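Aim 2 progress update. The chain analyzed this quarter is reproduced below.
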Amino acid sequence: MDEIDQRLIAALRHDARASLSDLALALGVSRTTVRARIERLRRSGEIVGFTVVLRGDVAGDPVRGLMMIGIEGRGTDRILRQLSGLGAVRAIHSTNGRWDLIVEIGTASLEDLDDVLARIRRFDGVATSETSLLLRTRKASR
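Predicted structure tokens:
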């Protein structure tokens, strides 16, 4: 992937509905070049799809946070199952370093978030946790 491909992807991330003409103008290349590069990036798997982000996707969870979890022993699979069963859990990520899991949580209120956090902390095998509130999303890929 060269610099034009990287600039094309950045432009598509900003506005995936931009016309080929607008993209060509912004990149200083022809419409045919833009079309060919998009097709090549799709065929190679660099671009796997396009999506729409709705207002409801962002406004649905007025209170959002990331909970980092440290797990003791071999309880990871059980904790993953328990987390997956919680309606407020939006995503679960395994990671390296200090934390074993990072959990994205979305709720309607701070009180609801507090209840979810307390419930997760009571899971057998959760040794430590730390939570950060998400104050504002400046860029979202979904």
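Residues 55-134 form a domain with the Alpha-Beta Plaits fold (CATH 3.30.70.920). The longest strand covers residues 63-71. These observations will guide the mutagenesis experiments scheduled for the next reporting period.
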